[in-house]
Amino acid sequence: MNVDILANNPAWWWYPVLACGVTAFTFSVWIIFKRNNTLEGNLESRFNWLFGKKRKEPDLEEAEVSEILEAEVSESWTRKAKTIISSAFKRKRS
Which UniProt keywords apply (predicted)? Predict the structure, then answer.
């Protein structure tokens, strides 16, 4: 069964109208998500149960300053810092 939506040969001006409508809808959704900081986090937390994902680390946008500082001082962070510092001050062997 072939369905040809353009078989009736619609007027050309319907295409810009449809394009402007889709663009306006997309732009308005983008503005809503851009202005509302908690909307994205709420939707993410509601859909996490659906996919069975749990956060292993706190979200930096929602975390308090003390939580961020604690995460930065973790053991893996100090190992990375020691590696960077030691490689910066040692001479390269050639």
Answer: Membrane, Transmembrane, Transmembrane helix
The pair phi, psi for residue 51, each rounded to 5°, is: -95, 0
Q: Which residues contact 78 (CB under 8 A, 6 or more apart)?
A: none
In a domain, 81, yes or no: yes
User: Are the C-beta atoms of residues 60 and 68 closer than 8 Å to each other?
Assistant: yes
Instruction: For residue 34, count other CB atoms closer than 10 A to its CB.
Output: 10
Residue 51 belongs to what domain range? 14-89
CA distances (Å), 46 to each of 31, 51, 57, in order?
Answer: 21, 10, 17
DSSP at 92: P
Q: Is residue 62 part of a domain?
A: yes
pLDDT digits (tens, 9 = 90+) for 7-56: 777 788 989 999 999 999 999 999 998 888 788 778 887 888 777 766 56
CA dist., res. 87 & res. 79, Å (int): 12
Indicate yes or no: pTM above 0.85: no
